[in-house]
Amino acid sequence: MSNTNRSGRGKNRRNSAASQGQGSATASRQPGKSSRPSSRQQGKEVRSQGASLSAVRPKGRGRESAPIEGLPVSKNEETVIDIIGMNHDGEGVGRANGYTLFVQGALPGETVRVRVMKTKKQYGYAKLLEIVKASPDRVSAPCPIYDQCGGCQIQHMSYAGQLAWKRQLVVDNLQRIGKLNVMVEDAGAQGDEANQKKRSEEDADQAVEPAISEEQGNGSNRIRLRLEGVMNEEAAEHAIRVLPTMGMDEPWRYRNKAQVPIGVTEGGLVGGFYAKGSHRIIDMETCLIQHEHNDEVVAKVKEIGSHLGISAYNEETGRGLLRHVVVKKAFRTGEMMLVLVTNGRDIPHKDEWIGSIREAIPHVASICQNVNKKQTNVIFGDETRVLWGRDVIYDYIGDVQFAISPRSFYQVNPVQTEVLYGKTVEYAGLSGKETVIDAYCGIGTISLFLAQHADQVYGVEIVPEAIEDARSNALLNEMRNVKFEVGASEDVIPRWKEQGIEADVIVVDPPRKGCDPRLLDTILEMKPERVVYVSCNPSTLARDLRVLEDGGYRTVEVTPVDMFPHTVHVESVAMLVRS
Question: Could you report how far apart the first and last alpha carbons of the chain are, in Å?
Fold first, then answer.
């Protein structure tokens, strides 16, 4: 039931219309001033929480086509298959007489009875009818609307199993797409049994349904590399070590932001998440991966809005007022922000509504309105104003303080963000004398972490508003050894080089589509001693590591980090050194 975003990095962040940008060096904003989303954020907020995490289906899945002759199975046929793996959408992968079937809800190691629902030439989709033999990793999903909501995909898998699978997903992509050697002795470093049974017949999904789309890579990503037998000495010496996935001690209630679409029934306002693959709103009272206070605020807003007769936005007619309720929770300080996204500027009974919210939710420090009158599935519009309180709330990651505005990007799992950034700093290997460049710096979160351990940090981001946030956060923390500039990394970094700025370390944290090829060329021309690659997409990570390795770098170690438990998303941090 989350949106993963990037977002967290669901991280579709950085295209020209939506990256994390630049601006003034003021530490505080004027009341009512809008802060536009970074590119990382905007890609994550096109849909609500549930929708943005839903598995992406191959094109054409919804179209009926003529039956394909010569297949070993036919539509509506029932068959029993063994599940040999799980694809990047969390679907079980099985084979019926050599024909690949994807089965939602099936786990590796299971024997299941399925009904074939759709067939293509190389693969098809089947519905799970019965679990003949269950996986040891199978658990009962605790969420009452798990089967309806698209936000979580693998709640039915034990958390240890999830961590093992996410590590293996990273390994598979490094081998198949990056054609990189991975230390074989680490294959059982986490979840031996789960990994061994899942890899028992390593056929699966990405060979027939590549993880990188045509616009992200070329046809070569269909080629798979398997390391058969024992590596030779040279290959073993340069093999990549993939560590166990860094998980959470408590993998529930970790999200600090809720984005809830609002609809209406005869009983009043409803709000929750979009059902899988649709815009039908599933009403909900609680989301087990949201902070409890976010649930409470959403429930109160619906209750008060219904009492005051506030109308809900209708996508089909374009009428109605309340579109989304967005809630942000600062874990360290306890402050909360409420953003009402409305289809128009005028709010009936505004003062009464604000008063009721303040009375019911005393820990809310900011109530804002965002106006979005466009018929679009993008959540936020261009205008944001403060209805009551401050225009920002404050939170910490480690020792670094951040100001969070209604539209600024901020990682949704603060606990794991500190883990992710800690690993980034570790891989940078800083002694306090280095110059570091942070490409795709966003609002400066990683830059400010690095600045605590480096001599000088330079951050670059294409969206001006995010750079404004970054500069403000630097002033907020009284950090003088960090400089932010607006522009595309591949344009700004060469200019810095001409000015005599030489980077000892370059850190990249790109959107899901990976690094721009020109940026990779720029890194190879700059020749830093180390590159640290923070990734939200194992497939584009593998593709880009291959380019950097071909350019003279060696990938030493990769650490997966579980930023979004119970979903299929995984972050990774990779350390590269010059050969």
Answer: 43
Closest C-alpha to 416, from 547, 251, 202? 251
Distance CA 261, CA 50 (A): 10
Q: What is the pLDDT of residue 184?
A: 74
Q: At what angle do helices 159-176 and 538-550 cross, to 10 degrees?
A: 40
pLDDT value of position 231: 53
Amino acid at site 100: T
Q: What is the pLDDT of residues 347-402, one digit of tens each?
A: 999 999 999 999 999 889 999 999 999 998 899 999 999 999 999 999 999 999 99
Dump pLDDT digits (tens) for 35-73: 334 444 433 333 333 333 333 334 444 455 667 888 999
Name residues whose C-beta falls within 8 Å of residue 188's C-beta, 6 or more positions apart in sequence: 195, 196
Q: How far apart are CA 337 and CA 301, in angstroms?
A: 13
- Cα 567 to chain center, whole Å? 10
The torsion defined by the Cα of 205, 211, 214 and 217, in degrees rounded to 10, comes to -120
How far is Cα 322 from Cα 471, in angstroms, rounded to an integer? Answer: 33
**Positions in the chain short of pLDDT 50:** 1-62, 186-230
Annotated active-site positions, please? Answer: 536
Residue 108's pLDDT is: 97
SS3 224: coil
Is 246 in contact with 423 (CB distance < 8 Å)? yes
Whole-number Cα distances in Å, 163 to 262, 418, 560: 33, 18, 9
What is the C-alpha R_g of the chain? Answer: 24
Which tokens sit at 83? 């599940």
CA gap 294, 290 in Å, rounded: 7
DSSP annotation of 220: G
Return d(Cα 268, Cα 285) in angstroms, integer.
Answer: 14
Alpha-carbon span 482 to 436, nearest angstrom: 9
Decide: 555 and 576 in contact? Cβ < 8 Å: yes
Distance CA 253, CA 292 (A): 7
Beta bridge partners of 312: 322
pLDDT > 70: percent of the chain: 79
Residues 6+ apart with CB under 8 A from 230: 184
Half-sphere exposure of 58 (CA within 13 A, CB side): 21
**Phi-psi domain of 73 (left: phi exceeds 0; alpha: psi -120 through 50; beta: other):** beta
What is the rounded CA–CA span in Å between residue 359 and residue 432?
A: 49
**What tokens were used for 203?**
């056929």
- Name residue 123's beta-bridge partners: 100
